[in-house]
Structures are given as structure tokens and as C-alpha cells.
Design goal:
heterodimer; A: mainly alpha; Serine Threonine Protein Phosphatase 5, Tetratricopeptide repeat; globular; B: mainly beta; Immunoglobulin-like; Beta-barrel_TonB_sf (chain B); transmembrane beta strand (chain B); transport (chain B); cell outer membrane (chain B); TonB-dep_OMP_SusC/RagA (chain B)
């Protein structure tokens, strides 16, 4: 009898339905404001993943161009990007695509989740703020994807194929097939997201750290100046920039977070990294590092502070050009002569071997130069344009002020060179080349890539082509 | 050995009655097996209780009362004989082994059964075949020994789990590793790990290495549904049952087994020497329009350095193994106690395995109807290894020791002339006089300064009680535990290698796997005399498993003085925290019918509830049925001419449905992981919910015959099997733009969603034959042959044209697609080298398969058609061809045992073939970056050598030879014949052993992995860079091949 009981009563219901103790079930993640805050942090963490703004996205946009020389011929650290031999299955092509869309989907899920649980996460107003944050990040993700995977907007006003526009949460097997929207359509979505963000983000986030590492109103405005510049809508660049740039020097954002140029450029890239110039940066701590073979310093610092994957191009790189006056320019500190191999390395993110330097995403200096360029291109206030350029330039090179330019072309050339110098290692070089439809210059034995070349932009992720039946390749 | 066994079985005592003495008869009993005297035979005067037992030489003396004239001889495992006494007072007779009983009771799920009545497909390997093998875990020693079971050694790293495939690959995304059950309790195996076993560092850790092979009495492999369905949801990959030794009634028995061996690397690549290297690479530089960059470095004696990096990384290792077993018993109690110690050095420097274990198995009859027993094993095993780069996922590790000897420049030294390591401050191998990078890292400091270990403390045990309720009806309860604690330690110096980027690093990770298993069974035997035997079994099993891991990583070492986690570092972060559990509750039943010894029928069923599946999908039903018909028992057979040659002939068929529950413990739930953003906590969507996820089910069909002929000299079986796996869980790839997360907790994206969709077939024939080719008193030759075929085909996936691509780290070679074998190779076809210009010719394919030949000119004109028009590059997606299968289509082994007098010789040959291998290592060996090359690169195209087999060398060319994407040039056939083991033994003659006061002793020498015959150009056709991954087999990328081991050993019985 005991035997019979033992045999047939034996199944423990509790053990059969275990609840995970270290991960959250989807049923509970939206049930408190604290969890919603952490979910929002999770979106930011996705943005600054090593494959994305944690370093690699920034790095790819520099090493495609001419200011760096590959030293390790390591396929894992951007060799194919550097030498323009990318194929649809190259790791960086697939990984960047995936992580950017991972952020987009997580943002979409978050937006839906907070909307459906408004009462639990803090009310409708809070929901709108969360959604503004998510839309800022989604806009940034789409904008970033466009810069590598699609023809520049400048090429025929965005009529080329852009990206699949995913604006709904994807939680199951459905909806693999989605065709590419045009570049212009994607830009329209980006602007819609950023406008929503601007209107609904907080004016400021309560601490210097949060003002640098989470979006506030001025962050969205600053990003819009970059977006409109890519679209060559100079009037819009000016009107956006004017919201956060005073008419006259010293230039400052007088509403929201009071952004300004920091006096000493070195302070911008030194702890605590949260000065008024750093509009948006990726934070790192010992507990949350960019990861192995990620981190700006990993690529640009020689050992033992980094892996030294890229040294400065001392044949035709920016530090060999006239715009850079080594003796007078504080930015000469960005050059590091490595005694052990005689090569020069970028010293902008010097901390290592742990790469704790924040990765800059948007700086106030860029907004000033964006505005300056828009003024030049649109025939606006040329003296203000000059003042803006000089504000950035003379901060580091007090003797280097330009007195004026003979032509728009000359002004533009000076602006682009200043940007190339000021933002080296910050991922704007490829952007500047492509939005102006310029040839990507060659370096060492790597040939130049004209805008007509299929290699001018990246191939589409091979997995995407395989799984999305409506997806089209880039060449 | 046979004699040893017999002594075990010696009956304790026989009543000896004293009667009126009439006649004293002496005699000797021999075994027909080896012609030796047979000890322990019961000798009775027929019809009386007068009896005795034969002594160690088989001799006996007995008093036969007057009027009695027959002696009966009986002994377990031998056919009982009766002898009529003649005038002589000396009786000599030979007894024959009874194949019906000895060794023919085999273990089945939750019980044992006579082999001849078993109708499921079960193969058995005796412990003798395993005990002396110089391996770390018993599964490695099963290679080639079991029909239908393909086992391969994926690399030369010690205690790396072998890849075991019972009748092919039976899952695409779950483990294809069989269920391993030890004395009734399922244990942990590679399927609980992440590749390379259960460790999280480079010290491979196969938990099956915690079982001392010397403790194993037999291994049974359950292959078809009829045999395995009693294990229900865990049976899809087959089940391996391990039975450990137990004591037998009789006097105490001591066995001592010992061997010592030397292990050496074999089949290393013929790499360019320093001079050739400089010539090739400088030529490549010139062809790329660059200056020469490679120049000799002179050592302190002014001789140019020519470094063989293999010498730095590899070695000849020493290994030894000692086992002591003591067993015995009486009518109430029997015991088996053993202890073992082994220490083995691998062919890779600092790769060591050490194990110490103790086991106690005991059974005690408390009352006539009540028996209790216990098994208890404790093992402490230490695996140590450097970063071998040979475990799954490590393929392209820049400090992997499998890869470093292949890529490091030979014209630079290991140490500079001042004695310091030749390294750069950039964590690279120093270029010496070369002007460009000349290696990834320097292997020497990595070996000297870094260390990794994985230590197991493993307690396996069970207790049981067995009550006979009524005659034939037994209730048995068994409670087993399996507690495995694993401590993984990693230390990376900051000076060079993997620890460099963290300024020195130490990881300690602790994992505790905790399992309890409770089984209750009722077993009823009944029957109707000779007409019908019936056996019923019903039971319940519950199993709960907890898997908890925690650890931390310390980085930025305070001082190079420290070399452990406990030293001083400036930072610490948590590492590898996991807390998970699963539970299985089951009910099962079996019924066996044996009618008139001719008609056999067996049915079994199991209902399993498993915690990992979603509510509503937790329970599944599984069943199997089989039938056998022993034709040779029929009178028409016995009367026919056939019976004179075919002694035994049986038809057998089985069908059933079993499952695979090897999913993650929370696979069905929608999950959010956690992390940090700057200083703040995060919650991150990591896993889509999967409410429909459920078992994979295999429908297994078998038809077979068993036979024995020529007086049982030939015995064998032939089986046709067909295994249809349905509801395969596929990680259905999602468009990356959907943003579905990749593996939990990380930021990779491009995830997939596990879905029960897809089906696959494994079909083939397996054959096992034993043949006593020669049997004479002084010479015998036994042949044990097994041979299997396998055809694997994926018959359905998510959609007709779905394809699953499985990556080998950074490279993707395997494709799983409907109509092809699982994990076939997906490559761009190449057609050699264009003799006009030395460029590799690739084949592009249009929408309808029309071919366009294109060629590649690195850093020059790039991709052009043969007439020079620019074109786009070929890609796997657009132009790839599928080559396969990667699973051997035929394989098996022949084990020959020769005995001459006291000598025995074993020749064990394993063979396998019909498969293709992607030799990715070859792509690396021809890569035109700084990497060193195989000597075959010397035959590169030059204007003077227009028929060269290697494309014109151009510096940094990583495309022409397959580093950028896989090409057909690197696909090779994997056929091989391997002399797996040669063993020569000598058994000490009994007069000598008697003088030494021992019962038997045997000395032997053996060579493991003696010879390999293959046309495969890589180091070993068995390499599996991706370990057990079911969809990524057949890839050879930078893994170190198997060793050859010479051992000398002794087996002693006292």
C-alpha cells in the first residue's frame, strides 16, 4: 500500500513551475516606476554596447578615412573597414546592424510597455517622458545606421534605399519581411522622433552625470543640428542651433542645461567627463566597461594602455597638415610618440588598460561648428560663422584665429579641417566626407574610394538579406 | 582476466557429507575458453549432497560412496556437465561457457534482462575493454567499439569531452549528447556545459572523467525506442548505462591495475622555416607594392634565428594510473571497495589531468525478503590547461596555443638576446628585425605566466531498499544524489597575452550542480511454467537539479608578485552568476512477455513532466514496443539443415516515440536580464517568450536479426534503423532588423526564436559480429567487428528554403537546409589558380545556377571576370555551394585479440568515412598576412611557375585562400583508418603466480592512437573545432590534434 502511494502521488507542483530568481519575467517588468527607470537605463546600455557607441561605431567612422593606419591586421578590430574590403558577412557589418536594431526594438517594446502600464509606472506624464527618451535613442540609432548602410542624403536628396523602418515591438516569429524605406523617409522618422523628444524631454536631468549620460531637451536639439546638416537643410540647422547657442560669444546654451565650450580642451576628455561641453557621452565604470577589443582606448592606445590597433597616419593624416600647428595647439597633446616602436598614436582616450574614458557622442563644439557651417553654406551671418569657428579653434590654438576667408569654399575647407582635427577619434570624419559627397582618401597601400564606388557605403548585413525576403543589398 | 572473474564467482561453501568411504576420485577441470584449469567448480556426487570445489588449478578430490557412479560439475557461467565414472580414479574434463548466461545478462533501464530475451537495440561493452585505456574518461575508450555509436575526439586537450553520436545527430539546437546513467542515477555530462565540458575556462572538464574507468563493470548503450523509451523525454540521443562493479560471494579478492605512459604529438604541420618565411613574405610585400619587411635576427652566436614554435607549445608528456580494488562477500553481504589515482600530462605544455577517487558499493540482505544497498563514489579531479585555443569558441583566439605555432613568424626568437621575452609593449610577439607585426602573442610568456584550472569535487551515491512483497513481486526504492562542485580558476598576467588588456586578471568561478533522484518501482515476475514468462514493472521517478554559479573577476593587478585571485588588484566585478533549476517527474511502466522461449514481446511507456516547458506543455507521453521471434527454437528449424550451421536465429522489430528535453531551464519564459549603465542598474529585454515550446520527439523504428552459428563461434546482429525526429526545436533566425536579442544577457542582437518546427531523419544499418576464428588450447584469435552506416537528412525546417547557418566563431561554414545532411559545408566554389596571372579563380552563380568564373587580385584590380571586367565579389549567400555530409556515412571498428600461450595481442582498428571536413586551418596556413605558412605555399604562382597550386602571394591577402569566406579549396574528405590501440600482454604462468602468492598477473604494453591512415591534409580528421555542436560539425580550425600514447602496465589479482 505504501508502495502504491509512493508510486503515484509523486509529482511536486511547485518544483514543476519554478520562477527564475535572477531574471525578470516579462509579466513583472513594468510594474513599478523603479523598474521602468531601470528599463530605460537598459536602453542606454544597449546604445553604448561595445559594438555601438561604446566604441566601435565611432571607430569605424574614423578608420574608414585617412587619419589612421592599421597596425594589427586583425580582422576582428576593423581591418576590413579600414581597407574597404567589407562583405555582407563581415562581422562588423552584421554586428553593428544587429545591435542598432536591438536598441530600436528594445525602445519600441519599452514605449509600448510603459503605455500599457501607465498607472504602474507613474502616470501618463511619466509615460510621455519615458517615450521621449526612447524616441531620442531610436532616432539616434536610425541616424547612425543611415551613415554607414545607405547612400548619403546628399546623393539625390535621400531617394536611395534606406532602412527597414521598425516602429512596432517585435516579440515573436512574425514580420521578418520588411522592405527598405528610402533614405528620406528614414530621415523623416528620425526628425519626428527627435521633435517628440525635444518637446517632452526634461529641460535637465538633475546632475552633471545624468545631464551628460541621459538625454534632455538640449541633447535632442544638438542631435538635430547634426541631422539637418546631413540633409543640407541649413536653415533648420541654424534655427535648431540658435535654440542652444547664444548670438554672440561666449557661446552658451541659455535655456535647459547650460552647455558651453570648456576652457581647456584637455578637461573635456578627463574625469569626470561631465563638463558643460559634453552634451552626450557614453559612461564607463570598472563595473561596466566597454568590453574586450572594444573601447576607444583599446584601439588607439599603444600597449600597455591599449592594443594599438591603429596608429596616427603621419604621411597624410590631419596631424601632418598646416591646420595643425604643433607648437601652438593644445591638441598636440593628442599625439603620443610611442618610444618602443617609433609610431604616433592618438592620445585622446588615454586611460588603460581598462578603458574608462567616456566615449563622446555629442559635444557642444560640434554644435558650434555645425552652426558655423550652416551659416556659411546658407549665406547667413558670416562674421558669426567666423566667430563660431574661431571659438573652437582658438580655445586650443590661441594664436590661430582666422581673420576671414576669400570664398565660401575656403571657409568650408577650413571648417572641415577644423572638424577633422577637433573631432579626431570621435567618429565624425566619415560623416563629414559622405555628407559632402567627397572621396574617401587613400592611405598607405589602400586606395581612395570615390562616391561612385560600391564600397563608399557598407554592404547590408548578410543575415538580414537571408532572413528578410524584402530586403535588398547595397550593390 | 577470465580466471580472475571466475574466482570472483567462486561459491563460498558446499556441504560436504561424510559417508562410508568407498572410492577416492581425483580430477581436474579445464575451461574450454583458454584451456586453463577452472577454479571454484562445484563437484557433486550426483544424487547426494556430497561435494567439493575445485582449487585454483581446477583440481579436486572427492570421495564417492559405493553405488554412486556419476559426478556433476557446475559453475556459474558454464554449462553443467555430468560425467560417468569409469574404472579410472582420475577424471579430466573441459567445461564450456554457457553463452546463455555468462555476461549475457545485460542491464536495461531500471533493471536487468537476459540478453537473448531483449528485443530492444542494446550494445554492451565490458569493463575489461576500458580499464587499461590511457584516457581520462571512459567514453573516450568506447571509440569504435559500439555499432551505431560514432565517437570522436575533437582535439588533443586532456579531458575534453568526446563527441558522442548514437545513430547520428538527433537534434539541431539541443545537445545531441546521450543521457548518461550511472548505477541507475543520471549524471552530469557535456550537455550541462557550454562546450569543452563544464568549465568556463580553457581547462576542459568532462565530468564523466570523474568516474574511474577501472570501477566500470559494463557499459550498455540503449539505441532504439524499445530500449530507451523507459527514459522517455531524455532518450532521443540514446542512453548510456554504466554499471559499476559489486562484490561477489567468496573469499576476498584484490586487484591492482597500474600503467605508466608517454604521450607525444603526431602529425604536426610542415611549416616554412625562417629563410623560406622571409622569402615568401618579402615576395608578397613586393607583389603588394611594398618594401621588404622581413629580415633575419641573429642570436648571440650570430646565427640567424629559426624558431619552431611547436617546440615552445608542445611536449612529450608522462602519464600514470593506479587502481586498487578489494571485493568480496558472503551470503548476506557483498562489498566492492576501490580507490584510484591517475596523473596525466598532455601534449600541450602545462595541460595536466589528475584524479583521485574512492568507491564503495555494498549490498546487504537484512532479512530474507529485504535487501538494502548503497553506492558511494567521491572524486577529486583537477584539470589544468593553458589557453589551448582548441575548445569550442576559442578558434580565433589570438593567444590560443593551437593557433600560435601556425601564425608566429619563425624568423623571430622566443627570447631576445638579452634573455627577455620577445614581446612588444602592444601585447604582440616582438618583430625582431622585421618592420611589421610578426605574430599575435608570444606563446612562451603565456605558458609561463598564465594558468587555468578546473577542479571537481564530485560525490555520486545512492541507497536502495528492496522488499519482496510476495513471491515474484518486489518493491524497490532508490534515492540517489549527484553533487558536483566545480571551481574554475584563471590567472592572466598583465605582462603578455589575454590578461594584458585588463592589466592582469584573475577569475574565480564556483559552480555547484546539485541533483537528487528518487525512484520507486514495483517489479512483478510471474509465468505459466515453461510456456510463459511475464515481467511487469511500474515506477515513478523524480529528479530535481539545481545549478548555481557565482564568481568574480579581479583586474588591474597591484603588483606582478601576485598570481592568484586572492592577491591584490584594484578592481573586481561579478562574473558568471547563474541560479537555475529544473525538475522532472515521471511515471513509467514496462511489460515483457516471453512465450515458450520463442515469442518475445516488450512494451514500455513513460509520462514525463518537465519544468522548463510552458504551462500546458509540461507533460509528454513516450512509449516503445518491440517483438522478437526466435525461429531457431521452432521445431521446423531444428529439423532443418539450417540448424546445423545456424544455432540461433531471431527476428526483432521495434518502434517507439522518445523525446529530447535538453532546453534551457527557463526556455519558455519571456525574460529580462540585468546589468549596469554607468553606475545605475538596468533591466534589459533578453528572451522572447515561447509559450508553445515543447519536446522534440523521435520516432524510432528498428528491424533486426540476431544469430549465432558454427557452434556459437560466430555471433552477431544486423539492424536496420530509421529515426525520424519531429518537432525539432529550431532557433528560427529572425531578421536582425527585428531586434530580437541574441544569447541572453548580451548585446549582440540578431537573435532567433526557438520553435518546434522541422524534422530530420537518421537511417542506416548497423552490424556487430564476434568471431572466434581460432580456438585451440595454445592459440586463439577472436575478432570483434562492428560496422554502421548513417544517412542523415533534414526533411523540414521553418520553411522550405529556410537555412540555419552556424558560425565557427568569426567564420560561418555550416549550413543546415532541407534535403541536405545537418550542418553541411557552405562554401564558394574555387577552380584553382589562373595560370595566366596567378589569381584564385572563384565561381559565381546566377539565379539559375549559371556559372561565371571570376578572379581576385588583392590590392590590385580586385574582383574581375577572367577577361578583366570589374565585378562584385562572390558571396556564400549568392554563390555558395553545399558540400556534405559532415557526419561519417560509414564507421566502425575491428578488435582482434590473439592469444598464444601466455601472450595476448590486441589490435584495435577504427575506421570512418564518407564525410567532408572544412579544413579552415589550411586557410590560415596560406593566409598572406604576417602569418607563417605551410610549406605547400612554396608552390605559389610566379611568372616562372605558372602552374603553381597556390595563388600569387600578395601581402595581407586574406581572401584568395579562404580566410575571408570559406572556399571549396579547403573542403576535404575525412575518410580514415586508425589503429586506435595495439596491445601486447603476457600473463604470468600459474606456477610463478603461486610462488608469488597471487592469483594472476598480466604485464602489457600498448600504443594508443598508434597509426593513422588518411588522405586528409589537416592534423587529424577527427577534429571538431565546435565540439558537440550538432549543427557545426566537420570544421577544423586551429585545434590541436590527438596525441599518441605509449603505455606499460600491469594487472594483478590476489
Amino acid at each position: 500500500m505504501i508502495a502504491i502511494i509512493l508510486l503515484f502521488s509523486a509529482c511536486n507542483e511547485d518544483l514543476l513551475n519554478p520562477i527564475p530568481r535572477t531574471t525578470f519575467s516579462e509579466a513583472v517588468v513594468f510594474d513599478s516606476p523603479e523598474k521602468a527607470d531601470q528599463l530605460l537605463n537598459g536602453l542606454y546600455a544597449t546604445l553604448i554596447a561595445g559594438q555601438f557607441y561604446g566604441s566601435r561605431y565611432i571607430i569605424y567612422n574614423d578608420i574608414r578615412a585617412e587619419d589612421f593606419i592599421n597596425r594589427t591586421t586583425n580582422g576582428v578590430t576593423g581591418l576590413a573597414t579600414w581597407q574597404h574590403t567589407l562583405v555582407s558577412t563581415t562581422n562588423e557589418v552584421q554586428n553593428l546592424w544587429s545591435v542598432a536594431y536591438l536598441l530600436i526594438n528594445r525602445a519600441n517594446i519599452f514605449m509600448q510597455g510603459v503605455a500599457e502600464n501607465a498607472d504602474k509606472v507613474g502616470g501618463q506624464e511619466k509615460v510621455i517622458q519615458y517615450q521621449a527618451q526612447a524616441r531620442f535613442l531610436r532616432g539616434l540609432a536610425y541616424f547612425s545606421l543611415l551613415q554607414l548602410y545607405a547612400r548619403p542624403y546628399a546623393d539625390n536628396n535621400g531617394s536611395h534605399p534606406g532602412l527597414p523602418l521598425r516602429v512596432q515591438p517585435e516579440l515573436d516569429n512574425a514580420n521578418n519581411a520588411l522592405a527598405r524605406s528610402t533614405v528620406a523617409e528614414v530621415y523623416a522618422q528620425i526628425l519626428e522622433d527627435l521633435n517628440f523628444a525635444e518637446q517632452n524631454l526634461n529641460a535637465e536631468n538633475g546632475s552633471a552625470l545624468k545631464n551628460t549620460t541621459m538625454a534632455h531637451r538640449n541633447t535632442a536639439i544638438a542631435l538635430k543640428t547634426r541631422v539637418y546638416l546631413a540633409m543640407r537643410q541649413y536653415g533648420n540647422v541654424i534655427s535648431e542651433a540658435n535654440k542652444i547657442v547664444s548670438q554672440t560669444a561666449p557661446f552658451i546654451a541659455d535655456s535647459g542645461v547650460n552647455h558651453s565650450l570648456q576652457e581647456d580642451i584637455a578637461d573635456v576628455f578627463a574625469p569626470p567627463y561631465t563638463g558643460p561641453e559634453s552634451i552626450f557621452s557614453a559612461p564607463f565604470t570598472e563595473m561596466a566597461l566597454p568590453g574586450t577589443q572594444n573601447g576607444l582606448g583599446s584601439y588607439y592606445n599603444p600597449g600597455p594602455r591599449g592594443n594599438g590597433d591603429y596608429s596616427l597616419n603621419m604621411d597624410n593624416g590631419i596631424f601632418t597638415l598646416e591646420v595643425f600647428e604643433k607648437e601652438n595647439d593644445a591638441r598636440s597633446e593628442w599625439m603620443f610618440e610611442n618610444q618602443s616602436n617609433g609610431l604616433s598614436y592618438l592620445n585622446k582616450f588615454p586611460r588603460g588598460p581598462q578603458h574608462l574614458d567616456y566615449a563622446p557622442i555629442i559635444r557642444y563644439a560640434e554644435v558650434l561648428l555645425n552652426l558655423s557651417e550652416a551659416l556659411v553654406q546658407s549665406g547667413g551671418d558670416q562674421s558669426r560663422a567666423l566667430e563660431l569657428l574661431n571659438a573652437v579653434r582658438t580655445r586650443s590654438n590661441p594664436e590661430g584665429a582666422y581673420s576671414g576667408f576669400a570664398s565660401t569654399e575656403a571657409f568650408m575647407e577650413a571648417l572641415l579641417l577644423e572638424r577633422r582635427l577637433e573631432f579626431i577619434g570621435e567618429g565624425l570624419r566619415s560623416f563629414d566626407l559622405m555628407r559632402t559627397l567627397s572621396t574617401i582618401p587613400g592611405k598607405e597601400n589602400v586606395q581612395a574610394i570615390p562616391p561612385s564606388s560600391p564600397n563608399y557605403i557598407w554592404p547590408i548585413s548578410g543575415v538580414e538579406l537571408l532572413t528578410n525576403s524584402l530586403m535588398t543589398p547595397n550593390n | 582476466m577470465k580466471k580472475t572473474l571466475l574466482l570472483f564467482l567462486m561459491a563460498l561453501s558446499v556441504q560436504v557429507g561424510l559417508h562410508a568411504q568407498n572410492r577416492s576420485v581425483q580430477g581436474q577441470v579445464f575451461s574450454s575458453e583458454d584451456g586453463e584449469g577452472l577454479p571454484g567448480v562445484n563437484v557433486f556426487v550426483k544424487g547426494t549432497t556430497i561435494g567439493t570445489v575445485t582449487d585454483i588449478d581446477g583440481k579436486f578430490g572427492i570421495s564417492v560412496p559405493s553405488g554412486q557412479n556419476e559426478l556433476s560439475f557446475s559453475f556459474i557461467g558454464f554449462v553443467t556437465k555430468t560425467v560417468k565414472l569409469t574404472a579410472s580414479d582420475f577424471v579430466e574434463l573441459t567445461m564450456d561457457p554457457d553463452t546463455e548466461t555468462l555476461g549475457e545478462v545485460i542491464v536495461v533501464g531500471y533493471g536487468a534482462q537476459s540478453k537473448r530475451s531483449v528485443t530492444g537495440a542494446i550494445s554492451s561493452v565490458s569493463g575489461e575493454k576500458i580499464v587499461n585505456a590511457p584516457v581520462q574518461s571512459f567514453d573516450q575508450a568506447l571509440q569504435g567499439r559500439v555499432a551505431g555509436v560514432n565517437i570522436l575526439t575533437p582535439n588533443g586537450v586532456l579531458n575534453n569531452p568526446p563527441v558522442i553520436r548514437v545513430r547520428g545527430v538527433n537534434s539541431l539546437s539541443l545537445s545531441s549528447y546521450p543521457l548518461i546513467v550511472i548505477d541507475g542515477v543520471p549524471t552530469f555530462s557535456d550537455s550541462d556545459g557550454t562546450g569543452g565540458g563544464l568549465s568556463f575556462n580553457s581547462a576542459a572538464n568532462n565530468p564523466l572523467g570523474n568516474i574511474n574507468p577501472a570501477d566500470i563493470l559494463s557499459v550498455e548503450v540503449l539505441k532504439d525506442a524499445a530500449a530507451a523509451a523507459i527514459y522517455g523525454s531524455r532518450a532521443s540521443n540514446g542512453v548510456i548505462l554504466i554499471t559499476t562493479k559489486r562484490g561477489e560471494q567468496g573469499s576476498s579478492k584484490v586487484t591492482f591495475d597500474s600503467w605508466v605512459g608517454r604521450t607525444e604529438p603526431v602529425r604536426l604541420f610542415d611549416l616554412l622555416n625562417a629563410e623560406e618565411y622571409m622569402m615568401i613574405k618579402n615576395e608578397a610585400r613586393e607583389n603588394a607594392g611594398q618594401e621588404k619587411a622581413f629580415f633575419p635576427y641573429l642570436d648571440n652566436n650570430n646565427r640567424p634565428v629559426d624558431t619552431n614554435w611547436y617546440d615552445v607549445v608542445l611536449r612529450n608528456g608522462i602519464a600514470h594510473n593506479q587502481n586498487l580494488g578489494i571485493s568480496g562477500g558472503n551470503t548476506k553481504t557483498n562489498y566492492y571497495f576501490s580507490t584510484g589515482y591517475t596523473r596525466q600530462e598532455g601534449i600541450i605544455q602545462r595541460n595536466d589531468f589528475e584524479r583521485i577517487n574512492g568507491r564503495l558499493n555494498i549490498d546487504h540482505k537484512v532479512f530474507e525478503r529485504f535487501t538494502v544497498g548503497a553506492t558511494m563514489n567521491y572524486t577529486n579531479a583537477i584539470n589544468r590547461a593553458p589557453n589551448t585555443g582548441s575548445l569550442p569558441g576559442q578558434t580565433f583566439n589570438t593567444s590560443g596555443l593551437g593557433r600560435l605555432p601556425l601564425v608566429s613568424a619563425p624568423n623571430v626568437p622566443v627570447f631576445l638576446n638579452d634573455g627577455s621575452y620577445n614581446i612588444t609593449p602592444n601585447n604582440q610577439l616582438g618583430p625582431a628585425n622585421n618592420t611589421v607585426q610578426s605574430g599575435f602573442t608570444n606563446a612562451a610568456p603565456i605558458l609561463d605566466l598564465n594558468r587555468m584550472s578546473s577542479v571537481n569535487n564530485h560525490l555520486m551515491g545512492s541507497v536502495y531498499g528492496d522488499v519482496k512483497l510476495i513471491e515474484g513481486l518486489n518493491f524497490r526504492t532508490t534515492y540517489g544524489i549527484d553533487r558536483l562542485s566545480i571551481e574554475d580558476q584563471t590567472f592572466y598576467s598583465k605582462i603578455h597575452g589575454d590578461g594584458f588588456s585588463n592589466g592582469g586578471q584573475a577569475d574565480n568561478l564556483f559552480r555547484s550542480l546539485n541533483r537528487w533522484n528518487l525512484q520507486n518501482t514495483l517489479n512483478y515476475n510471474t509465468g505459466l511454467g515453461e510456456l510463459l514468462d511475464i515481467n511487469f514493472l511500474v515506477g515513478n521517478e523524480q529528479q530535481y537539479t539545481q545549478d548555481e554559479r557565482w564568481g568574480a573577476r579581479r583586474t588591474v593587478i597591484a603588483d606582478d608578485f601576485f598570481d592568484s585571485y586572492q592577491g591584490n588588484f584594484t578592481t573586481i566585478i561579478p562574473l558568471g552568476n547563474i541560479q537555475t533549476e529544473n525538475y522532472l517527474a515521471s511515471f513509467f511502466a514496462r511489460a515483457n512477455f516471453n512465450m515458450a522461449g520463442k515469442y518475445l514481446l516488450s512494451m514500455n511507456a513513460r509520462r514525463d513532466g518537465f519544468s522548463a516547458f510552458a504551462a500546458g506543455n509540461k507533460f509528454g507521453n513516450f512509449w516503445g514496443a518491440s517483438a522478437g521471434y526466435i525461429l531457431s527454437e521452432e521445431s521446423f528449424w531444428k529439423n532443418s539443415a539450417l540448424s546445423s550451421t545456424l544455432d540461433y536465429f531471431r527476428l526483432r522489430a521495434s518502434y517507439g516515440l522518445v523525446g529530447n528535453n535538453g532546453v534551457n531551464n527557463f526556455a519558455s519564459l519571456g525574460l529580462y536580464g540585468t546589468g549596469l549603465y554607468g553606475p545605475d542598474p538596468t533591466i534589459i529585454y533578453t528572451q522572447p517568450s515561447n509559450p508553445n515550446l515543447t519536446w522534440e520527439t523521435s520516432k524510432k523504428t528498428d528491424f533486426g536479426i540476431n544469430f549465432s552459428m558454427l557452434d556459437n563461434r560466430i555471433e552477431g546482429e544486423v539492424t536496420w534503423y530509421n529515426n525520424l525526429v519531429d518537432g525539432l526545436i529550431l532557433p528560427v533566425p529572425q531578421a536582425p532588423s527585428k531586434g530580437v536579442p541574441g544569447s541572453p544577457g548580451n548585446m549582440t542582437g540578431s537573435g532567433s526564436i526557438d520553435t518546434n518546427i522541422g524534422s530530420m531523419m537518421n537511417r542506416g544499418i548497423e552490424m556487430a559480429v564476434t568471431y572466434k576464428a581460432i580456438q585451440s588450447r595454445n592459440f586463439s584469435w577472436d575478432i570483434n567487428l562492428n560496422f554502421s552506416t548513417l544517412k542523415n537528412e533534414v526533411t523540414a525546417l521553418a520553411t522550405e528554403d529556410s537555412q540555419i547557418l552556424t558560425a565557427t566563431s568569426l567564420e560561418t561554414v555550416n549550413i543546415t537546409k532541407v534535403g541536405h545532411s545537418v550542418g553541411s559545408l557552405y562554401v564558394v566554389e574555387t577552380r584553382g589558380v589562373n595560370p595566366e596571372n596567378g589569381r584564385r579563380i572563384f565561381v559565381k552563380r546566377g539565379a539559375n545556377g549559371e556559372e561565371t568564373l571570376v578572379q581576385y587580385d588583392h590590392l590590385g584590380t580586385g574582383w574581375t571576370t577572367l577577361d578583366g571586367q570589374p565585378t562584385s565579389q562572390p558571396t556564400q549567400n549568392a554563390d555558395g555551394i553545399i558540400m556534405g555530409p559532415v557526419l561519417p556515412t560509414w564507421f566502425g571498428g575491428i578488435d582482434n585479440t590473439f592469444r598464444y600461450g601466455n601472450f595476448d595481442l590486441g589490435v584495435f582498428v577504427q575506421f570512418s568515412g564518407g564525410n567532408y571536413i572544412y579544413n579552415g586551418t589550411k586557410a590560415g596556413l596560406r593566409d598572406m598576412r604576417f602569418w607563417n605558412n605551410h610549406k605547400d605555399v612554396l608552390d605559389r604562382w610566379t611568372p616562372e611557375n605558372p602552374n603553381g597550386s597556390i595563388p600569387r602571394v600578395v601581402y595581407t591577402d586574406n581572401i584568395s585562400n579562404g580566410s575571408a569566406f570559406p572556399i571549396s579549396e579547403n573542403v576535404e574528405k575525412g575518410d580514415f583508418i586508425r589503429v586506435r590501440n595495439l596491445m601486447l600482454g603476457y600473463t604470468l604462468p600459474s606456477n610463478l603466480t603461486q610462488r608469488l602468492k597471487i592469483s594472476n598477473a598480466r604485464l602489457y604494453g600498448q600504443v594508443q592512437n598508434s597509426f593513422l591512415f588518411t588522405r586528409y591534409s589537416g592534423s587529424d580528421p577527427e577534429i571538431s573545432t565546435n565540439g558537440n555542436n550538432p549543427t557545426a560539425a566537420g570544421v577544423d580550425r586551429n585545434s590541436i590534434g590527438q596525441a599518441r600514447t605509449f603505455t606499460l602496465g600491469i594487472n594483478i589479482g590476489i
